[in-house]
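User: For documentation purposes, I need each entry recorded in a consistent format: the amino acid sequence on its own, followed directly by the corresponding structure tokens. There are two entries in this batch. Please keep commentary to a minimum and don't merge the entries.

Assistant: Recorded as requested. Entry 1:
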Amino acid sequence: MNSNLFEIEDLRASGDGTEILKGLNLTVNEGELHVIMGPNGSGKTTLASTLMASPSYVVSKGRVRLRGEDVTDWPTDVRAKAGIFLAFQYPEEISGVSVIQFLRQAMSARKGTEVSALEVRFSLMEWMDRLGMDPSFAQRHLNQGFSGGEKKRNEILQMALLEPEVAILDETDSGLDIDALNVVARGIEEVRKQKPTIGIVLVTHYQRILDLLSVDKVHIMIDGRIVETGGPELSQVLEAEGYGKWKI
């Protein structure tokens, strides 16, 4: 697989009047899993939010393309329908809306047609079993009272059912114990098996999840730019040596 699925070209974006992304470039081909690592304040979460058209950030230059189509000016809901998915670092609670209700609405929007409750329930139960989630989870209000691990597994559950073209996972591994980390990593790989063309951009601080995934490229992000790209071994260099040699 080598067709360009998702392209970020010379992207510059600001938040509260301060430029955070300073000419970032990244190309993800079909079926690839890219990892972005960088110190605090390097712009990783800004990048994830900007790719989903967060109103907190203003793009001043550059292009974002999905399968060659310019989506830079598209609002969040249109990007989601087109197949761009964001797993949040801190998923929000939505009182009064159950997991299954939320997923039915989201799946219907993604497919452009009404999805039956039976279809949602069937897929939901299958994936909850894969992710080690209690079936009663489907009736709980979205993220309300969820543990950190439950919230992160719920994000992977959403990714599985929505079958996006591109998934941006913003620190999905943060705050997880080793058991939850294994479940989340296994879930990511299961989604890749189900949809082999999916492109994934995983933002993380930690090398440990990379040991559980089949990673294609690791990027180092410093001060709003990607300053080096390599294979999975690059994360091991970071683990041993830190970011010192890349900081200006």
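Entry 2:
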Amino acid sequence: MSFLDTFVQMLVLFAVVIVGFCANKCKLMDKELSKRLSALVINVTAPFIILSSAMGDKGIDSHDIVPVVVAGTLMLVFMTLIAIPLIKVLRIETNLKGAYHFMFVFGNINFIGFPVVGALFGEYAIFYASLLSIPFNLMVFLLGVYLITNDKSLLKLRFKTLFSPCLSATYIAIALVFYNIHVYEPIVKTCDLVGQITIPISLLIIGSALADIPIKHMIGKPIMYVVIALKQIVIPCLILLIFLLTPLDRKYADVLMILSAMPIAAYGTMFCLKYGKEHEAEILAQATFLSTLFSLITIPILSTFLSLSYSLLS
């Protein structure tokens, strides 16, 4: 897709975010409603969109599973490692190194990733995103928590992490694809219908959450903009170039590259609040807001980069 086509697509998605922002300001949405809707998305509608992505004629087969999971895992590991020298070069304050490390690694692949890759590539890309959620969730609840707290005692793998509703749906979706199971049509339509709720509700929740951030917290320091540029443009382009040097199928590489450029995950702010890291919470809230705002431009830039790479390689 061209820059303009992708920008328009992102503008449509961001317009829904603005609707959520306005709904909050008009007292139609608040933290309590957003919290309940978030639970609905995470526990009900997101699992259905994952199941839906593996049903029907979506152009997916069992050969897609291993390459996406392996490449996605290696991508997350690469992002974890490359963040170490970048933090040193940027001279991040010692007490904030963990928070900034978190920013470089963990993007919002569920609330933003699903609608973005679905809009850019089609429903099969949502299945790929759900596959990436397996290593992502393991890492965010282990490494992510450790980066925020610097407490090794919290490096524990919990049963509910492995079998959350979204991951459980992903396992079922993998089984459907791997064994080429054809699902009864009414079930497919039900999953499609419920799953379609995920994208608009997710975007409304993000808009409402942004409306709760004080204006003074929305600006951030100059270093924040450097981190966002690195995380959402430079590193994804580098990841794509690395993928192009491997035998990885281009359709996997394109989706994973876009997913690597997602805005910073709200998990970081949640972890900070849970473990009493108030200053880090403020920094991560700023980063989440700014990275979400700038994704309106960075995603079209990356889409243009993808198009140019096809031209150069043809």
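Summary note for entry 2:
The longest helix spans residues 278-313.
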